[in-house]
Amino acid sequence: MKDTDDDRQMYAEVFKSGHDLIKDALCELDCGEALLNDQYQVSARDQLSTILGGCYSVPVITSSTSPTLVEVSHDVFQYKGPELDVTISGGVITSLKLHGREYIPQGGKGNQYVIFDDKPLYWQAWDVEIYHFDTRQELCNKNTRIISNTSEDIRIETTTKISDVSSIKTQYIFPTASSSSQSLLSIQADISWHETMKFLKVEFPTNLTSLQANYETQFGIIQRPTHYNTTWDAAKFEVCSHRFADLSESTAGLSILNESKYGFAVSGPMMRLSLLRSPKMPDKDADMSDHHSVKWGILPHKGPLDMKTILEARRFNARSHISSLVPFHNTTTTITNNKNDKRNGKRNEYYTHPFTIKSNHPNNGFIIDNIKRGEDDVDVSPYSTLADENGHGGLEIRKTRSVVLRIYDALGGRDTARLVISGLKNVKRVRRCNLLEDDIGNDLELIKTNNENGSDGGDERIEVEFELRAFEILSLRVEFE
């Protein structure tokens, strides 16, 4: 629908509510707007990796090699970083190298905007037909320039004219010395869109060869053919993907991360991300707006699809919320089931990782996706969204306090691993449960081990061994005394 003042007001209220929730969560974890420690930043846990929960301290990471961006000739820019080398000419990527390995074919144009006629046979807002590829038109860029070139921010901006009423302003955001990933090229596009029955996409030609492309779905990955050998294959020309699509050989691959656009098409070595359509039925104003903000990322990698793409895609979609803390030296509150429990120790004892996964497999795909309180715990059930005005939630109340973890395999391989519980006292038992949080089977064995690095003041930690099948979702209830 077309943006209106009412729409913008509603979105503003939703964003305000979200920021308030984040602020409340940080306050509960003792984070706030205070002095920032010189050596550590404190970040809200945002599902970046296999270890989640609470706040944690992370060192400010800096690369030993400072990236550089220069304009080598008119409209030609070269970026050189510790891992990534990029050449942009005419507003498109003409060279993309990771550790010297080229990913763009000679004469190829990466991040090339293309537009197609979009005239399906029946339902305009739902259908897209394979013959739309026959109407491909490249869009030209102009006014490409460096808009920031500092140690903390390196950007190039270019402008693309779609028509007399539509345009795109694109920013290439390069890794800096302090970036968490030195191989991720981020792209931010601000699109003014007022077309009629057109389909806007962005292309990424590669020099990779594979019969299958990988597309993330919720709790897993699907594979679709990159060829049209049969009518069944041809019918899969447009694929729904969640946070990334990946095309890989045995020695190298390219992942396209996306933040808000979920249509993808891979044909041979060509990868295409769908950005906007403009159907006129049933709503003639569908997607018409002066401000579509879209972000995606280009992540070349060594070898086939692995956990690096999984974690970078999660990071790309769940941004950190940076907060600061007032340093203190004598006492530290530990994240335990007792809020009044205090002990002496170093500052980073407060920010241990309560739950981590340990595996001997180098490419284990296990992810802790969610950490929550048990819905039927005695101190949660009366305040649950299921509860009525009298605090009755319809569930049998457990006279315990527990935390439920949802773990899944993201890469599609059976493996055995251990859940490591650190810094949490009085763990009584760990059990499997289903998605309704009903217990399944017997208690899992609690294996007590000594902390390896001593960051928990020499405390014991508990490990629980479990097995996951390919793409299986596992729920574990950690119960406290």
Mean pLDDT: 85
Question: What would CATH call the class of the largest domain?
Answer: Mainly Beta
C-alpha geometry: globular
Beginning-to-end CA distance, first to last residue? 53 Å
Strand line-up in the sheet with most strands:
10-11-12-13-22-19-18-15-16
Structural features, described:
The chain is mainly β and 481 residues long. The chain has three domains: 28 residues; 183 residues, no CATH class; 250 residues, Golgi alpha-mannosidase II, domain 4 (Beta-galactosidase, Chain A, domain 5, Distorted Sandwich). Strands 10-11-12-13-22-19-18-15-16 form a nine-stranded antiparallel beta sheet, with helices on one face. A six-stranded antiparallel beta sheet has the order 9-8-14-21-20-17, with no helix packed on it. It has a five-stranded antiparallel beta sheet with strand order 3-4-5-6-7, with no helix packed on it. Strand 24 and strand 25 form a beta hairpin. The longest helix has 24 residues. About 12% of the residues have low confidence.
